[in-house]
């Protein structure tokens, strides 16, 4: 494993995904992580098009009932695949929304960043496609596709805050990659580094959480 400055030992899974996300997700995830600066979880969920009247406090279960069910889905008592489960919380100045089924990625960062905010969305598909959108004041200012990411060339062109997040994310060895090439989990690490998100599931459990079904 190569240096990942923003992530202490035992906070990443073997593929380099932040361990708290791995612990939340199903075994074959198709998921999205959103972060936005300076608004509460209810407003973030509303900006994503969720029905906040369905929002409820969430205490995550101790474990997943099976390989297909995420922890947020289990918390809602839903069957996996029937709709997405959105889990949200606020850590200091940043709010996150974890979407266990990838229903909320389109134009999400732009919607979340309206009214002078900064926001980012990291997408990881069931096929292993990974990307990140960074938006400020309702406009996309950077889009990063892991397949086309050349760190030495692309980092200097990123907005300073996003560049710092990718530097903290570092790189992880992955089969088929040359040294210094970006691995498929780098965008999830970058979003977590940007927002200072919990590094373990135990830390996440200390955050007041809400959950709702979507779609």
What oligomeric state best describes the polypeptide chains here? single chain
| Overall form | globular
Radius of gyration: 16 Å
DSSP strand tally: 8
Structural class: alpha+beta
Mean pLDDT: 95
- Measure the end-to-end span: 38 Å
| Beta strand % | 15-25%
Strand order of the largest sheet: 2-8-3-4-1-5-6-7
Low-confidence stretches: none
Largest sheet: 8 strands, antiparallel
Task: Work out the helix count.
Answer: 8
H/E series, N to C? HEHEHEEHEEEHHHHE
User: What is the helical fraction, as a range of percent?
Assistant: 10-25%
Key attributes of the depicted protein:
215 residues, alpha+beta, 8 helices, eight-stranded antiparallel beta sheet, single chain
How would you describe what is shown here?
It is a single chain. The chain is α+β, with helices and mostly antiparallel strands. The chain is 24% helix and 24% strand. The chain is built from 8 helices and 8 strands, in the order H-E-H-E-H-E-E-H-E-E-E-H-H-H-H-E. The protein has helices spanning 19-24, 41-47, 71-76, 108-112, 151-154, 160-169, 186-195, 201-204; strands at residues 31-37, 56-58, 84-91, 94-99, 118-124, 130-136, 139-145, 209-214. An 8-stranded antiparallel beta sheet has the order 2-8-3-4-1-5-6-7, sandwiched between helices. Strand 3 and strand 4 form a beta hairpin. Helix 6 packs across helix 7. The longest helix has 10 residues, at 160-169. The chain is globular. The mean pLDDT is 95.
């Amino acid at each position: 494993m190569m240096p990942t400055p923003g992530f202490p030992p035992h906070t990443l899974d073997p593929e380099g995904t932040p361990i708290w996300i791995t612990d939340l997700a199903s075994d074959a995830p198709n998921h999205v992580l959103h972060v936005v600066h300076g608004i509460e979880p209810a407003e973030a969920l509303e900006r994503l098009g969720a029905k906040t009247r369905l929002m409820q406090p969430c205490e995550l279960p101790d474990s997943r009932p099976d390989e297909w069910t995420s922890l947020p889905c289990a918390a809602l008592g839903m069957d996996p695949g029937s709709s997405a489960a959105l889990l949200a919380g606020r850590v200091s100045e940043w709010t996150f929304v974890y979407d266990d089924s990838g229903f909320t990625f389109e134009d999400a960062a732009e919607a979340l960043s309206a009214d002078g905010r900064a926001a980012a969305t990291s997408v990881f598909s069931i096929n292993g496609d990974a990307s990140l959108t960074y938006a400020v004041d309702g406009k996309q200012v950077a889009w990063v596709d892991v397949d086309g990411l050349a760190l030495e060339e692309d980092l200097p062109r990123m907005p300073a805050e996003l560049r710092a997040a990718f530097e903290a994310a570092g790189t992880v060895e992955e089969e088929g990659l040359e040294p210094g090439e970006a691995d498929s989990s780098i965008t999830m690490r970058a979003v977590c580094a940007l927002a200072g998100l919990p590094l373990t599931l135990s830390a996440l459990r200390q955050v007041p959480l809400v959950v709702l079904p979507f779609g």
